Amino acid sequence: MKRVNSFQRFMNRRASANCRYQPTCYEHAANCYTHALLIVPAFVGMTLLHRLSDNNWEKITAWVYGMGLCALFLVSTVFHIITWKKSHMRSVEHCFHMCDRVVIYFFIAASYTPWLNLRELGPLAAHMRWFVWLMAAAGTIYVFNYHEKYKLVELAFYLTMGFFPASVVTSMSNTEGLHELACGGLIYCLGVFFFKSDGVIPFAHAIWHVFVALAAAVHYYAIWKYLYKAPSADTLLDS
């Protein structure tokens, strides 16, 4: 019984329908650190892609993707810090909670941007470059109107936006990097299990953060290697 009680201190009861789970102090700390430690690496990664860019279009694409990556970890960290340390500031907390949800839509759009901008696409597929941002805008409108009311609907929106542009990316004639894209997508999907397990598994949200970090790292590696990395000397000689 003592073991059960000591274990339970790391997790509170599961939240009721359409209510937000209240983490323990240990979970709050884990939620903050698991994304706070990635802000600087994300900024460094954005800078690296910018330096590897050969033209203005690649630089703009690197900036858009990098800002989406940095914003994801930064906004998440700020929200969790406010929730942990400033719980009495309900209006500010609510605002950053919405921002935390909104930034996910823009992060998904930003993650697809390098592939849609820097790979050759067909005439119909090229419209996805703009449509993916329209989906992000639609998600933002949804959050500001129905925040925390229909959690399953919101999750369905995230998954739809995550998979729908993939139908275009996977149809590209150049398939380099698609294996990494698929692996990253699978990691995100596996992490969703923990995203919905607050109050069931201790540190579930922090574990979700780890899955997000791993998936983002796989996708970043693919973008760096196949879209930005300078060709090797052997490749230049072969060409």
Number of strands: 0
Strand pairing plus helix content: what structural class?
A: mainly alpha
Radius of gyration: 19 Å
Order of helices and strands: HHHHHHHHHHH
What percent of residues adopt helix (DSSP H or I)?
Answer: over 70%
N- to C-terminal distance: 69 Å
| Count of discrete alpha- or pi-helical segments spanning 4 or more residues | 11
How would you state the average pLDDT, rounded? 85
Largest sheet: none
Q: What proportion of the residues form beta strands (DSSP E)?
A: under 5%
Poorly predicted runs are 233-239
Q: Can you tell me about this structure?
A:
With 239 residues, the chain is mainly alpha-helical. It has a domain at 22-171. Helix content is 74%, strand content 0%. It has helices at 2-8, 25-36, 39-52, 56-85, 90-118, 128-146, 151-163, 166-169, 178-195, 204-228, 233-238. The termini are far apart. The chain crosses the membrane at residues 30-50, 62-82, 102-118, 124-143, 155-172, 178-195, 207-227. It is a multi-pass membrane protein. One of its GO terms (molecular function) is metal ion binding. Zn(2+) binds at residues 80, 205, 209. It is found in: Endomembrane system.
